[in-house]
Design brief:
With 422 residues, the chain is an alpha/beta fold. The chain has helices at residues 88-95, 128-142, 157-166, 172-175, 239-249, 295-298, 302-312, 321-329, 377-385; strands spanning 5-12, 15-22, 47-52, 58-64, 75-81, 107-111, 145-155, 178-182, 213-218, 229-231, 234-236, 257-261, 266-271, 280-285, 345-347, 353-358, 392-396, 399-403, 416-421. The radius of gyration is 22 Å and the shape is globular.
């Protein structure tokens, strides 16, 4: 039943009562009255909010409230991040997520980037992940939010922030149900040295299983090319490589099903089968440059497709998402990717102890299983913890190698690590 209250009947001695039960996804803000000064409606009717982050940084965002906002009904919440050099108002006008015909009852937040850019851009210095998490907490306390239906979208640099930075963050990925990038800028590495767009390692530390990612990109994008390459002293992956990496982290492999749309001008690529079909979906669009597609100019309209995708994937409905979050929350400290936190101890789910060692035993030899794709060092350790034969694991470029016994003496520099049982 939709809404923040579910009802069940109780009959005692012939007297039947209707009792309310709070919906599990309802936030603390349910039942609180709206500020009478706030407007609701379509594009241009959003409210400018001044906001202080937990780090004491002053930020602003636009808040769209739907006309039918109900303080007793849990509503979905969408974040829509503008591109580099863009603005919150410009993003609202571009994506049209405030239009009732496209989005009837979800709240939408259009944040304003510091220096008009987002974390993940080569020049960005702001902590926009913390800003986003703080907004989630604050909005959930003030408004009736369905915490299973919080989403992140964006265009260009904003798309890269949503579908790469937030989706790969161990905490944000557990609070946000699904992600969508439009003409996204998915910068990798610390320089463009030896940039190989089809193979560049894509660092990711997602804190959950089965992360839904939707991506739109044009074949004639001259700003963030479909084929990737060197840009602003960073390496851009090809879009197929970026999406395949997500599919592999989600355990789906590299194979996808393709549908040709709009007289073969659009290719829809879907990874996954059964209940996970399309959890990673990409639209490859002919003749489109660096923009947000609509059917008048580019064959398809991204916004209703995004809404359909978001409505399909919730933390409650995505297999394994909620269970993963529970396990991570109860597992103690969370090891980041190396080289940070070297020689730290980590308690894996179930209480097994591991020591994190960076840049040791990074060879793939002597592994007794084929590489798997857990996407995080934490996930790699969890696999070892569940395997009685496993003495330690090696985590290299998102691949997990399980090995017997203690680590060897191989020492190579790089973003690799082992988790050794103690």
């Amino acid at each position: 039943m939709p809404g923040s209250i579910r009802y069940f009947g109780l009959c005692v001695l012939g007297l039947c009562l209707l009792l309310g039960q709070a919906y599990a996804g309802s936030s603390k803000g349910c039942g609180k009255a709206l500020n009478s000064k706030y407007k609701s409606g379509a594009t241009g009717q959003s409210n400018k909010i001044n906001f202080n982050t937990s780090q004491g940084v002053k930020r602003t965002f636009l808040l769209h409230l739907p006309k039918d906002y109900d303080k007793n009904k849990a509503h979905g919440l969408i974040f829509s991040f503008h591109g580099r050099s863009g603005s919150a108002a410009g993003q609202e006008s571009l994506c049209k997520l405030s239009e009732p015909v496209k989005n009837k009852d979800m709240l939408v937040v259009y944040p304003e980037g510091i220096d008009k850019q987002w974390q993940g851009d080569p020049a960005a210095k702001s902590d926009d992940v913390t800003f986003t998490l703080d907004m989630i907490n604050s909005l959930s306390d003030q408004y009736c939010i369905d915490t299973d239906k919080i989403y992140a979208t964006g265009q260009s640099n904003g798309g890269g922030f949503a579908a790469n930075i937030l989706a790969c963050h161990p905490v944000a990925s557990g609070k946000i149900a699904a992600f969508a990038g439009v003409s996204g800028a998915y910068y990798q590495g610390t320089s463009d040295a030896n940039c190989k767009p089809q193979k560049v390692p894509i660092a990711c530390n997602a804190g959950r299983k089965n992360v839904p990612i939707l991506e739109f990109h044009g074949q004639k994008d001259d700003t963030i090319p479909y084929a990737g390459g060197k840009r602003r002293n960073r390496c851009l992956p090809t879009i197929p490589h970026f999406m395949t990496a997500w599919a592999e982290r989600n355990g789906l492999g590299e194979d996808y099903a393709q549908s040709n749309l709009a007289n073969n001008h659009v290719r829809k690529m879907e990874w996954g089968k059964g209940g996970l079909k399309g959890i990673n979906t990409h639209y490859n669009i002919d003749n489109m440059g660096h923009t947000w597609p609509n059917e008048q100019a580019y064959y398809i309209n991204a916004t209703p497709l995004i809404m359909d995708f978001l409505n399909r994937w919730t933390l409650a409905s995505t297999p394994g998402a909620r269970a993963s979050n529970t396990a991570i929350a109860s597992s103690g400290s969370q090891p980041p990717l190396c080289p940070a936190q070297n020689n730290k101890n980590y308690s894996a789910p179930g209480g097994k102890k591991f020591k994190i060692l960076c840049n040791w035993d990074t060879s793939e030899t002597h592994a007794y299983t084929a590489a798997t794709y857990p996407g995080t060092l934490r996930g790699c350790i969890a696999q070892c913890a569940a395997d009685s034969k496993c003495g330690h694991v090696v985590f290299i470029d998102d691949k997990c190698w399980k090995k017997m016994g203690k680590p060897g003496s191989v020492n190579k520099k790089g973003n690799a690590a082992i988790g050794q049982k103690m």
